[in-house]
Design a protein that fits this description.
Elements (H helix, E strand, L loop, with lengths): L3 H11 L12 E6 L4 E5 L12 H11 L5 E7 L10 H10 L5 E5 L5 E5 H4 L6 H4 L2
Parallel strand pairs: 3-4
Antiparallel strand pairs: 1-2, 1-3, 4-5
Length: 132
């Protein structure tokens, strides 16, 4: 499977989540244009506003390493259902991806669905909108 390694990384990072308040673990892994993979987990904070989602943790990690072109992202939360990125994460995905970026919603290594960013965030506000 094309995204097998990406899915395994997301599952691994889910176990690293710091979630003492919500108890809702989320893991994410991003595949960048240069084929490097970066993982992240959600990290909560007592102030709640300082909490960071797994998707943004993984993307920011990639960007901090110089990778700014996102090909795909795998996301896993509750293992009994598919967990979708929140609105802020969808906007961040659109900043570094494209409407064709694959978003893999994972329950397990064998159970996942693949969506396009365009389907999850139609008519996204992008940097091109700022140039008009």
């Amino acid at each position: 499977m094309k995204y097998n390694k990406l899915i395994k990384e997301a599952l691994k990072y889910r176990e690293r989540a710091y979630v003492p308040y919500s108890k809702f673990k989320v893991g994410a892994a991003v595949l960048m244009e240069d084929e490097n993979i970066y993982g992240g987990c959600n990290i909560e904070n007592a102030s709640f506003g300082a909490t960071n989602c797994a998707e943004r943790t993984a993307i920011f990690k990639a960007v901090a390493e110089g990778n700014k072109k996102l090909k795909a992202i795998a996301v896993v939360g509750d293992l009994s259902t598919y967990t979708s990125p929140c609105g802020i994460c969808r906007q961040v995905i659109s900043e570094f991806g494209s409407k064709d970026t694959d978003i893999i919603l994972v329950k397990s290594e064998e159970d996942y669905i693949i969506k396009k960013l365009e389907d999850m965030l139609p008519k996204a506000f992008t940097k091109e909108d700022l140039e008009k």
